[in-house]
Amino acid sequence: MMVIDRLRNLLKPADADEEPELPPQHSVLFVCMGNICRSPTAEGVARHVAAEQGLDGRVDIESAGTIAYHAGEPPDPRMQAAASARGYDLDGRARQVTAEDFDRFDLIVAMDRDNLADLRALDGSRHGRAELRLLSDFLPDGSTQDVPDPYYGGSRGFERVLDMIEQAVPR
């Protein structure tokens, strides 16, 4: 099941023929280490797909990092260029995950196993309402591959990140 399908299922009324009186609001937070490459790209792609599928205003989509090193910075210019070439806008600013995020979001999607371990440590024994998952859980081929961090590599790394995210959040 893809990320947007998962959110669509959360939004589906109990009786599929009935529309709810007030549209429910659900939320997803994408997380990588610094919140300047992978997670803002997942946020941008998911926002784009949600808008295309008429989910604007019904899904809150954000991103954050497990560290605060890049807090306040825009996404990496190389990631912005790669995303823009595919029609995605990455307009957020980096921020660090907070303890409150575990109660605020329905779904928190980590880009790799290290990010997931960091998230579990941050949540600790609180066990907030958020479901913690890896982006690879949503890949159609059942891959367990982490989304690689492209920061220290060449342009192909940024394209690979986009390829994986587009598979997990298809149009």
Overview of this protein structure:
- 36% of the residues lie in helices and 13% in strands.
- It contains 6 helices and 4 strands; from the N terminus they run αβαβααβαβα.
- It has a 4-stranded parallel sheet, sandwiched between helices.
- α5 links the parallel β3 (107-110) and β4.
- The longest helix has 15 residues, at 38-52.
- It is globular, with a radius of gyration of 15 Å.
- The two termini are 13 Å apart.
- Mean pLDDT is 88; it is low at 11-16 and 19-23.
Work out the helix count. 6
From the alpha-carbon coordinates, what is the Rg to the nearest angstrom? 15 Å
Strand runs, count: 4
- Note poorly predicted spans: 11-16, 19-23
The global form is globular
- Which percent range describes the beta-strand content? 5-15%
Q: Name the helicity range.
A: 25-40%
N-to-C SSE string, H for helix and E for strand: HEHEHHEHEH
Specify the biggest β-sheet.
4 strands, parallel
- Arithmetic mean of pLDDT: 88
Kindly name the structural category.
alpha/beta
State the distance separating the first and last CA atoms: 13 Å
Strand order of the largest sheet: 2-1-3-4
Keywords:
alpha/beta; 171 residues; globular; four-stranded parallel beta sheet; 4 strands; 36% helix
Write the layout of secondary structure elements.
Layout: H1 3-11, E1 26-32, H2 38-52, E2 59-65, H3 77-85, H4 101-104, E3 107-110, H5 113-123, E4 131-134, H6 155-168
Helix pairs in contact: 2-6, 3-6
